[in-house]
Amino acid sequence: MRLGIDFGTSNSAAAIVRDGQVQPIRFGDADQFRTSVYFPGIMQDPGEFKLEPGQEHELQALIDAAAAQARANGQARPLEALRREALLSLRRQWMEKRMAEPRSSSQLLQNAVYGDDALEAYFEENEGNLVQSPKSMLGYNLHPRARQTITGIATHILEHIRLTASAQLGAPVRDALLGRPVQFRSSIGDAGNEQALAILREAALAAGFDEVAFMEEPAAAAMHYHATSAQPHEAIIVDIGGGTTDIAHARVGGGEPPRIHRAWGIARGGTDIDLALSLAAYMPLFGRGITRVPTHHYVEAAMVQDMTRQRDFRQHSYDHVEDPYGSRLQALQDTGNTARLYREVERAKISLSGTAEHASPLPFIEKGLQVETSAEGLGQAAHGYLGQLRELLDQVRQDIGQAPDAVFMTGGMSRAGYLRQAAADAFPTARQVHGDASFGVVQGLALAAAGSH
């Protein structure tokens, strides 16, 4: 049996074809689970870092060297920025030393909790570590220890999927077809794609799969659409997920196998809208645009998927920021509160796709504090991503040089009316077909996995 797995930025799912029908794997009461993991004690808390006796001299030497380098390049850099970078360098060395202690990933991850339960465990325990959307980190420049940790997390998520599927199907599952975006999020260019696939392959094998292959997610969505199309026709497949947006041009329908002509992708998706909505509607309550707190502090707080930025945010001091903003920022630094805020942002984004207004209570920050958001505000926050989507759709239209018969939309963000309108504007003569937003890709993966043998 070959399992199709959608290892998603926001949610993960799996399915298999049995007796000619796609059968989803159930995770508790649901067909998917949030791609989040909570674990205690794996990564050292940078908040524990303090300069040791004698390190002031080392710190000053780093500042002097950086200042000299800046002067050699004809630059004049502020002393505060030089000191901050020097402290980060010393802290990074401290972290690497602490993480080099002989502790295996299996020992560290044995008490991990996954999905929505991970958030609840993190909130309840009020300590430990929460990693959300580990897929978004696979293509970034990773220190060897960080890579080992991310690989370990991916391994346990994939093992959770494999064991759940094996129990449900009554037989060991050892073969998997994993979906992959056209372009992973990356800080190292094309090498990020290679690294991400290498990590996922290593994790899948460590999770107990004997064979693992990959399929681009829009091609998988095309497989799903093909299975429901009686007549052959040309289609554009638009898959808008949490971390990436992927498009394929395919010939689907009829008795012949689907033919994928070409695929395009950008490493942008729903999480980018989350970030923009958080900065525009939520962070002003914490002083963004009002106080002298640098903008990047608010970005660090909002990007819960980025462990490094989250640690950096917790390092800042807001003792001298005027109230109520200083006390609110300090409350946001408390364990779990950036994750709580992000969950409220997600809820607002989902709600505003169908309603004009939404209220987000923030009692974990301050009693009676509430954020009022609107559909118009969401549209403004989504403007940046929407522009990138329109550019991608325009590129697709130019590349194919013809009008498709249909535009098939899938992925969690494809429910949003403003994104559907962007696709309609790009291909005005094509009929728009709305697939299963959450499960179109995984159903296609299951069909492709079954058809490959």
- The fourth-level CATH homologous superfamily of the largest domain is ATPase, nucleotide binding domain
Q: How would you characterize the largest beta sheet?
A: 6 strands, mixed
- CATH structural architecture of the largest domain: 2-Layer Sandwich
Structural class: alpha/beta
- Taking all residues together, what is the mean pLDDT? 88
* Cα separation of the termini: 10 Å
Overall geometry: globular
The rounded Rg comes to: 23 Å
CATH topology description of the largest domain: Nucleotidyltransferase, domain 5
Which stretches are low in confidence, meaning pLDDT under 50 for 5 or more residues running?
42-47, 99-106
Number of helices: 16
Name the helicity range. 40-55%
Q: What does this entry look like structurally?
A:
The chain has 453 residues and is α/β, with parallel strands linked by helices. It has 16 helices and 16 strands. The protein has helices at 55-72, 79-99, 105-109, 116-125, 144-169, 190-206, 217-227, 270-282, 295-302, 307-315, 325-333, 337-351, 375-381, 383-400, 417-426, 440-451, and strands at 2-7, 11-18, 21-24, 33-34, 36-39, 113-114, 129-132, 175-180, 211-216, 233-240, 245-252, 259-266, 357-361, 370-374, 406-410, 431-434. Strands 1, 2, 3, 4, 8 and 9 form a six-stranded mixed β-sheet that branches. Helix 1 (55-72) crosses helix 2 and helix 8 (270-282) packs across helix 12. The radius of gyration is 23 Å and the shape is globular.
